[in-house]
From TrEMBL:
<dbReference type="InterPro" id="IPR012349">
    <property type="entry name" value="Split_barrel_FMN-bd"/>
</dbReference>
<dbReference type="InterPro" id="IPR007386">
    <property type="entry name" value="DUF447_N"/>
</dbReference>
<dbReference type="Pfam" id="PF04289">
    <property type="entry name" value="DUF447_N"/>
</dbReference>
<feature type="domain" description="DUF447">
    <location>
        <begin position="140"/>
        <end position="192"/>
    </location>
</feature>
<dbReference type="Pfam" id="PF20766">
    <property type="entry name" value="DUF447_C"/>
</dbReference>
<protein>
    <recommendedName>
        <fullName>DUF447 family protein</fullName>
    </recommendedName>
</protein>
<feature type="domain" description="DUF447">
    <location>
        <begin position="10"/>
        <end position="133"/>
    </location>
</feature>
<dbReference type="InterPro" id="IPR049288">
    <property type="entry name" value="DUF447_C"/>
</dbReference>
Amino acid sequence: MSPVSARIHEAVVCTRDADGRLRSAPMGVRWQPGGPGGALQAVLMPFRPSTTLDNLLRERVAVLNLLVDARVFAGCVTGRRDWPSRAVAGDGHGPWPARLDCALRHVALRVAAVEDDPQRPRLRLDPVEDVTHAPFDGMNRAQAAVIEGAVLVSRLHLLPVERIAEEMAALQVAIDRSAGPEEREAWSWLLEAVEARRRRPVARPAAVTARGATA
Ligand SMILES: Cc1cc2nc3c(=O)[nH]c(=O)nc-3n(C[C@H](O)[C@H](O)[C@H](O)COP(=O)(O)O)c2cc1C
């Protein structure tokens, strides 16, 4: 990890809903200095409205999951948010949200600062536990394509469905050439979501721009 990173890593953020249920949401994370002694902090930028943001502001803790199972990214944006999870120790002062079983690494985070914004607040979080569970096997084109597809599907309420379908078609080659069973399943959920939106178009709010839901 470089000390100052403009790079965004796509992760899955776990938080606790008000009733204690686990909430998993894909989010981009940047790492920047600013913590105690110049330590790196995680920077999250959820768009309002966001249940994950509400949970973060209420409970002040989250667990960041770094993972390569593309089904979790595709699943969370297609109504499949419940993934096997297990407890973390955090800093011992819980309650902490669980981490996902498939995480290669998890980082337990405490909110250190919130820069509020009507559209996209910026949260800085201090890592209090950082555990690696499994090796990273290397980059895979189909996983990257699923991430892109999942971002597009998360914008189905903002962008014309035909534009999203065209961008998905351009990603298909990476799926055809490099996917394993997990990426194929994830991709099928994304295609289904696009088809469902084609059959059930919704009126888009006039004020929303094409920037959509993520950085
Ligand atoms: C790879 C990926 C990255 C994403 N990054 C963000 C992000 O940084 N901020 C955000 O608000 N939404 C992001 N999204 C969209 C959210 O995951 C999605 O809107 C989700 O439903 C938000 O859940 P919430 O209401 O609990 O925040 C991303 C989606 C994907 C697939």
